[in-house]
C-alpha cells in the first residue's frame, strides 16, 4: 500500500486469511459481469486465447474466463482456495504460485487477469513477473467488485461493515502505472449480487477485515449490520439484488517488450 501508516503485518495476515474459509468464500462471494471481463480482454492488441487468472482463489473469475471459451491457467498461493477451484473447474490447469514468482514460462499468455487481489501484491516484483509471462501486446486486467456507493442505504451499510481495503487501494492508485506497459485505462460496470440478509452477512464475513478480527468485535459488527438491514425496506423482504460496481483497470504490454522506458 502507498500509505506509510498502513500496518504491513496486518496486511500480510489479511492477504493470507482467505484459505481457512474457502468454502464460505466459494459460496458467498460474487462473480464478475461478463461485460467487464470482455472489456479487459479487448485491451490486448491481438485476439486473446490463452489467459492467466492470477490469485484465482476459488475460481470466481476463472469461471467467467472459461465461459468465454478461453484456455485458462489458474495460479493461487493458498491450497484451500485452490482445492475449491479444482472442485468447481476440474478441467482447468490450477497451479500453486504467487504473483511475485509466477510458475509460467516467458511470453506464454495473452492476458493476465487479477480479481479482487492486486491490492495484496508486492507491486514492483508482481508487475515484473506479469510483464515476463505476457506476450507483447498482451494485457493485464485487474478487477474489483465494490459496494455501489451511489445507493444511500449501501453507503450506510458499508460504513458499518468497513470492508474497504480494495476500494482504498483503487482510490490511491488512480494513477497506477507499471514499467513496460502502456498507461492504465479504467472503466466501471454495474453489477449485483442476489442476497438475503443472512447471505449478505455471510458475504461480509468472508472479507479479510472480518477474517482477522477478534470474534467479539466481528460478532458485534455483524449484529449491528443485521439490525441496520432489518430496517432497510430494500433488504427486508427475502431475496434482493445487492448493488455493486465492478471497476476494471487494464494496460497493454508494450509491443517492444522491454521494461526500461515507462515509469514504475
Ligand atoms: C479476495 S481473494 C480473490 C480471489 C479471486 N480472484 C476472486 O476474484 O474471487 C484474494 C486472493 O489473493 C490471493 N493472494 C494473496 N496474496 C497473493 C499474492 N502475493 N500472489 C498471488 N495471490 C495472492 C489469496 O490467497 C486469495 O485467494
From TrEMBL:
CDD domains: AdoMet_MTases. Its EC number is 2.1.1.-. Residues 52-141 form the Methyltransferase type domain. One of its GO terms (molecular function) is S-adenosylmethionine-dependent methyltransferase activity. One of its GO terms (biological process) is methylation. Keywords: Methyltransferase, Transferase. Gene3D superfamilies: Vaccinia Virus protein VP39. InterPro entries: Diverse_substrate_MTase, Methyltransf_11, SAM-dependent_MTases_sf. Pfam families: Methyltransf_11. Belongs to the methyltransferase superfamily. PANTHER family: METHYLTRANSF_11 DOMAIN-CONTAINING PROTEIN, METHYLTRANSFERASE TYPE 11 DOMAIN-CONTAINING PROTEIN. This is Class I SAM-dependent methyltransferase. It comes from Amycolatopsis carbonis. The lineage of its organism: Bacteria, Bacillati, Actinomycetota, Actinomycetes, Pseudonocardiales.
Amino acid at each position: 500500500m502507498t500509505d506509510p501508516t498502513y500496518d504491513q503485518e496486518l496486511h500480510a495476515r489479511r492477504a493470507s486469511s482467505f484459505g481457512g474459509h474457502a468454502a464460505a468464500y466459494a459460496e458467498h462471494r460474487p462473480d464478475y459481469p461478463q461485460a467487464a471481463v470482455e472489456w479487459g480482454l479487448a485491451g490486448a492488441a491481438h485476439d486473446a486465447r490463452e489467459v492467466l487468472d492470477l490469485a484465482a482463489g476459488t475460481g470466481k473469475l476463472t469461471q467467467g474466463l472459461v465461459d468465454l471459451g478461453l484456455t485458462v491457467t489458474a495460479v493461487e498461493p493458498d491450497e484451500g482456495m485452490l482445492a475449491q477451484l479444482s472442485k468447481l473447474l476440474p478441467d482447468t490447469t490450477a497451479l500453486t504460485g504467487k504473483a511475485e514468482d509466477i510458475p509460467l514460462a516467458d511470453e506464454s499468455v495473452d492476458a493476465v487477469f487479477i480479481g479482487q487481489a492486486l491490492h495484496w501484491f508486492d507491486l514492483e516484483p508482481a508487475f515484473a513477473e506479469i510483464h515476463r509471462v505476457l506476450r507483447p501486446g498482451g494485457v493485464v486486467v485487474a478487477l474489483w467488485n465494490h459496494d455501489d456507493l451511489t445507493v444511500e442505504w449501501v453507503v450506510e451499510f458499508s460504513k458499518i461493515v468497513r470492508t474497504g481495503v480494495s476500494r482504498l487501494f483503487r482510490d490511491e492508485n488512480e494513477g497506477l502505472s507499471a514499467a513496460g506497459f502502456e498507461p492504465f485505462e479504467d472503466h466501471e460496470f454495474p453489477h449485483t449480487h442476489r442476497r438475503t440478509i443472512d447471505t449478505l452477512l455471510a458475504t461480509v464475513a468472508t472479507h479479510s477485515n472480518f477474517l482477522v478480527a477478534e470474534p467479539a468485535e466481528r460478532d458485534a459488527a455483524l449484529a449491528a449490520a443485521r439490525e441496520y438491514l432489518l430496517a432497510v425496506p430494500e433488504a427486508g423482504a427475502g431475496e434482493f439484488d445487492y448493488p455493486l460496481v465492478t471497476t476494471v483497470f487494464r494496460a497493454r504490454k508494450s509491443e517492444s517488450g522491454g521494461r526500461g522506458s515507462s515509469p514504475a
